[in-house]
Design goal:
Layout: E1 6-12, E2 15-24, H1 28-42, E3 47-58, H2 60-75, E4 79-83, H3 87-95, E5 104-105, H4 108-113
Helix pairs in contact: 1-2
Length: about 120
C-alpha cells in the first residue's frame, strides 16, 4: 500500500524548502509534488530546496517528476537542489545517476549556503 506524499513548505534564509514525507510515486505522489512546485514558480519562486529525508519510497514516476520540476525551474531561471536524501532516495539517485546532475547535500546549512553568490560564500 502506498503511503501518501505530504509536503510541508517553509522558508529558510530566503530559500523555499519543501519537506517531502511518504512515497514519491507515479500518480498521486508525483502529481502533488508537480502541482506544488508549479504553484511555487507561478508565484515567482525561483530557489527551491527539496528535503528527501522522510521519503520512504521512490519509483520511476517520482524520479520523473523530480527531473521534470528541475527542468521546469531551470527553464525559468531558477534552481532546484536536493538535501538529505533518505537511503531509498539516495539509492535511486545513484542508480539513475541523477546525483551527478542535481546538487545533492547531506545537511541544510551547506545546502542553503550553496544558493549564495560565489563571492558571498565562506572559504
Amino acid at each position: 500500500m502506498s503511503v501518501p506524499l505530504r509536503i510541508v513548505q517553509r522558508v529558510a534564509a530566503g530559500i523555499a524548502v519543501f519537506e517531502l514525507n511518504g512515497h514519491l510515486v507515479f500518480d498521486e505522489g508525483d502529481r502533488i509534488f508537480r502541482d506544488q512546485v508549479k504553484a511555487f514558480t507561478a508565484a515567482g519562486g525561483r530557489r527551491l530546496l527539496v528535503d528527501l529525508a522522510d521519503v520512504t519510497y521512490v519509483d520511476s514516476g517520482g524520479i520523473g517528476s523530480l527531473v521534470e520540476m528541475y527542468l521546469h525551474l531551470t527553464r525559468r531561471g531558477g534552481t532546484l537542489k536536493v538535501m538529505r536524501p533518505s537511503a531509498c532516495a539516495r539509492r535511486v539517485l545513484q542508480i539513475t545517476q541523477l546525483d551527478s546532475v542535481l546538487d545533492v547535500f547531506d545537511d541544510e546549512p551547506h545546502a542553503l549556503q550553496s544558493f549564495a553568490p560565489r563571492a558571498m560564500r565562506a572559504g
